[in-house]
Amino acid sequence: MSSTHISRHVNAPRAIVYRALLDARVVATWMVPTGMTSHVHAFDAREGGSFRISLTYDEPTATGKTTAHTDTYHGRFVKLVTNEQVVEVVAFETTDPAMSGEMTITISLADAEGGTDVFAVHDGLPRGVPPADNEVGWRSSLAKLAVLVETGYK
To answer: How far is 69 from 78, CA to CA, in rounded Å?
Structure first.
């Protein structure tokens, strides 16, 4: 199992960034890599709460982990520290053993000059997920998060 570590500075207060991490409506807009669309099936943003999300590739030639063009995953919130940290355990819905297994995603927030530093750690990547691809996806998603919280999300 491998990990990715990503950071991003955003020009918004921690409280706003934290809310964006737990708002199902906006999670659907930012927690999706470029080239995909998101559908949030369920989202109970509390410790012990669960969620289920599907990401579908825009290009019909891309291959999904769950169906021909879609990656569906489910998970639960294991730790929520208001305005500081969100820890999730997630797993792809797949029959491919190379894509199976629980992953832990930890997003930590820290005050920084002019806003917030966001640190995302994705531990336990299945062997079928190249860390470089995971990093590209996370960088894309955090860029979308930055735009969202810097342009009026409250």
So the answer is: 29
